Write the structure tokens for this entry.
Amino acid sequence: MTTRVEPAGSLAGHIAVPGDKSISHRSVLIGALSDGETHVRGFGRSADTQSTIDAVRALGVQVDDLADDELVVHGVGLRGLQQPDAPIDAGNAGTLMRLLPGILAGQKGRFELTGDESLRTRPMDRVAEPLKRMGARIETTNGRPPVVVDGTDTLRGIEYVLPMASAQVKSAILLAGLNANGTTTVVEPAPTRDHTELMLEAAGVRVRRRPNSVSLEPAGRLCLPDITVPGDFSAAAPFIVAATLLAGSELTIHDIGLNPRRTGLLDVLERMGARVSVFNRRKGGGELIGDLEVHSAELTATDVTEEEVPRLVDELPLFALAAGLARGNSRVTGAGELRLKESDRIETVTEGLRTLGVRIRSRDDGFEVRGVPARPNGGRIPSDGDHRIAMLGAVAGAISRDGVEVEDADAVAISFPGFFDLLHSVSRR
Ligand code: S3P
């Protein structure tokens, strides 16, 4: 399906966005491993998180849907998952595909995991390798899904130095560590999102968090208290960027997760001169939450460095667009991981934005942008079935002169089903 997004004059109003996707996945997975019930509110329902619900159901876990954004997970305990009759289909959900092997490594039974065409091209050796070191029996298909896990009760804790900054790989190792003997430690090249650690801590696990590493002790049992999932910063990001770029905008986004390992885009935009204020700061379930007020601003160029990348990894496509309208030359380096996402985001971003007239060039590990503080023309963006590229196309359309046709626009449902309606509802002519 192709959707046309017309140029907007400004964005104005008050909005909320779906619950955080990373935290939603984890609430269901860790809830499934807990003793007793976990009541999840603010759940971010989307194709990806539905894949996680379907997966735990296939593994014998009861999940009651109380509402679109509310559910109860009836945990079966740390080793209580059951072998399903058929392969588990993770759909497009990379987080599910990476975290689940860590959980299944210590279960009883044999499990096969597969996914859609895009997911089946994504690297799995990054998870299989450390899990094997822990004693897991796991086989990939040439380093990719389908993956087969043969559960064992002889996992051992390891200290693992991650070769890439990846919260998914870190999480898989930590989740395996719950059922291992001894301490499990993961050292990171740069700090990545720590939702798994925070939620495990809330569930009673002994976790030691340091700036560049995390350790945990095997857990006898988990007990996950009720969870309220904050709004997804990555779902707020398209609105933050659009409101910044559209003169006269004044947009408030409520109840957003502001975990500092997720909000790199705010720091980068601030350097560029954006006007985003945070108020109503509070804490909920170990996570920082707040409201954001975004006013339009004229931006100047900046560079994003490797160390910073994990804190805005999913927002780099939007950064590229913002840089396209900023005064001066911007550069992203150390972001080779973008090539391994739902699409090769270095190519999809570069090709997509170029067709609109943005002066962007790809590098092996990022991109270079020559900013021009004027609306880009418009045109057609192929999203390649990648939800973040479809949203990028929509923001590009809103800030363009002539509008943008977003191909495969329904891909937004992977993380944010109501995205186009919400964008439309705050767009002023
Ligand atoms: C995620 C981690 C990141 C991110 C993805 C969600 C998570 O992936 O890009 O959208 O929930 O742990 P990597 O671990 O591959 O960097």
In short: The pocket of shikimate-3-phosphate is lined by residues 22, 95, 166-168, 171, 193, 313-314, 337 (CB under 6 Å). The chain has twelve helices and 24 strands.
